[in-house]
Amino acid sequence: MPAALNDHLRKSLRGDFPAHASFEDATARWPRDLRGVRPDDLPYSGWELVEHVRLAQDDLLRYCTDEDYAPGEWPADYWPDAPAPPSPAAWTRSCESVVADREALLGFLDDTDPFETVPTHDTHTMARSVLIAISHTAYHIGQLVVVRRLLGCWPPEDTA
Questions:
Q1: What is the pTM of this model?
Q2: Rounded Cα distance, 38 and 147, in Å
Q3: What's the rounded Cα separation, in Å, for the pair 148 and 150?
Q4: Given a cut of 50, is residue 160 above it in pLDDT?
Q5: What is the pLDDT of residues 43-100, one digit of tens each?
Q6: What 3-state DSSP class applies to 7?
Q7: Contact criterion met (CB below 8 Å) for 57 and 102
Q8: CA–CA separation, 149 vs 31, rounded Å?
Q9: What is the pLDDT of residues 34-46, one digit of tens each?
Q10: 117 has which bridge partners?
């Protein structure tokens, strides 16, 4: 893959552009007592969005690597059961998993031909999977920022 395209895909998935918030930016220093709060007229909390990104990205990673992959049941297997995390540690683990799985997806750009098909589908490529992860994550990062704005905790205190 041309180096410029590889670099652009990496920056896009990491949200590494000055005008964009990254996943890390959107979740940094989120007050514990607001992680499970759904702002008025919104059907999701910060926790629900974070956990949804984690579940969907994990699913996409398994789709790309597991020959025995089977999709989960929509929406039950792609959204958490409750608006609030069960513990502060669950929030931390979910955020860390999003980053780790994102880096695993980015590894496809170095370790495989990005135009190689995934083992579970004869026309879907690794590059397609990375592009799906980019658009899906970016969409939900925007929602995370909106939730934080409505809850009065955006931007994070020490970056204002």
A1: 0.93
A2: 8
A3: 5
A4: no
A5: 999 999 999 999 999 999 999 989 999 999 999 999 999 999 999 999 999 999 999 9
A6: helix
A7: yes
A8: 13
A9: 999 999 999 999 9
A10: 125
